[in-house]
Amino acid sequence: MKCNTCRTQFYGNVCPSCGKPGDELPDITGVAAEIGFALFGMTAREYAIQKWREASQDLCFQFISPFTLPDSDYTLAYVGLLPEFGSSRGTLIIDYDDSQYKKFIRVASERGYGYSYMSMSYEPYNREVIIDVLNDWGWCGSPDSKPSWYTGPSEENEDGV
Q1: Is residue 36 part of a domain?
Q2: Residues 146-153: what's their mean pLDDT?
Q3: Considering the domain boundaries, does residue 80 fall inside one?
């Protein structure tokens, strides 16, 4: 959908650019979702970025997208950077469906970023899933700005089980 105020294309209840409420799109999943979002002109990657933007507003953390890093003669465009999670430089989200994802991992590692490679999908934003992911990555931002929902990695994940 497009925001009636600023014309930003988004999915959800609130425009990520101006914060104005919008009408939620119908809940469609699987192939129907791919067809539906293709009709709205949004790729799975664009939709994933939109979900992370929605999560960052909902859960009060920083999400930077686009985010790029140079590699020789190329510029690598990551899905986004979460500068307060995973490592002192933050965590980069890598599109696992990109055939060059190993290059993205190498460059992120060489530059001291944490990374997570994820398959881009049309699954709707799920607050609890994002909280679990972020808790697993670990908070690396200022202790004064740690979100109230943050509980840290579970014991299962610390032990690698």
Answers
A1: no
A2: 94
A3: yes
The structural domain count of the chain equals 1
Domain range spanning residue 96? Answer: 61-158
139 domain residue, yes or no: yes
**Model pTM score:** 0.71
The separation between the first and the last C-alpha atoms of the chain, rounded to the nearest angstrom, is 41
Q: On the CB side of 137, how many CA atoms lie within 13 Å of its CA?
A: 27
The pLDDT-based confidence of 24 (bands split at 50, 70, 90) is very low
Q: What is the spatial distance between Cα 13 and Cα 15, in angstroms, rounded to a whole number?
A: 7
Residue 29 lies in a domain: no
Burial 66-91 (b: 16+ CB within 10 A, else e): ebebeeeeeebebbbbbbbbbbeebb
**In percent, how much of the chain has pLDDT > 70?**
72
